[in-house]
Amino acid sequence: MDGVTEIPLESFVALAGGNGTGKSKLLACMLGPWSGFIPTARAGVEARVDIALQFNEREQLALRDLSEARGWGAVEVPEAATISFTQHPTAGMRRASTPRLAVLDHAFSLGDFIQTQPSLNVVYLPAERRLLPAGSSAIDLAQLSELMAFQKTAEPLNALHDYGRLDDQEFESFARALCVAASLPNEPGEDGEAMRARADWEGFLQTVNEMIAPKELLPLTRQNPEQLRIRIPAGSVHDVQELSSGERQALIIISRVLRAGAGHSLVLIDEPDAYLHPQLSPDPPPLICGR
User: Which of 31, 92, 143, 236 could be disulfide-bonded to 177 (CB atoms 3.0-4.6 Å)?
Assistant: First the structure.
């Protein structure tokens, strides 16, 4: 065993250290239950990672019900369990749970299950990110759906094997949908609380403007129904695309986290202050990061 890392039970935790000290690898290890992947060890060396998990009563019940529904048996899910990964140079990757329960081996890779149990899901943004230009300016309220929210938490796990891609269109598509939805009434008998529980336009706008202050994000209007704009202190306006790369990246991170919604127990962001001017760098550092 090379070492044990205990993450404090705090709302915000930062991992600090120089380049090459293993911060990103540690985050990749923590993502093992969801990604099914741990970093490769040195040549010829077996890698082993043990991830300790704690469950509340509601999560225990959900896992127990899942076990019965999937035919894995009626089991008692404990308050604490360990998911272990072993990567052998010749035998490959092996995964096991303690206690050994099929539901613990498979639950975190079942999209239809963790979509309904956000506290058992993880929101992750990798350090290797590339900004891509925005595309269509069409309003798409499907951006606010439960399915889209879940897909955006699942996409970055692929970045453990590839580069992460943060698309400027992601922020603008989500923001435009929120802005338009805020002005639309519900159908008779329909409840809009589920949508508002994830993110609402006013809260989203406040969060964005606190980040880019003294600049300000302007809502869509009848005169400008498609393009979000930024107003600077002097009074002139410009497109979101004219913000700096650091500001645009921060906006996309905000949209990812708010889109995921409340209830997630774990949000991992590797190098959240990359490309940011020190004035915009978080203090204290947010969530769990790689810088």
Answer: 143
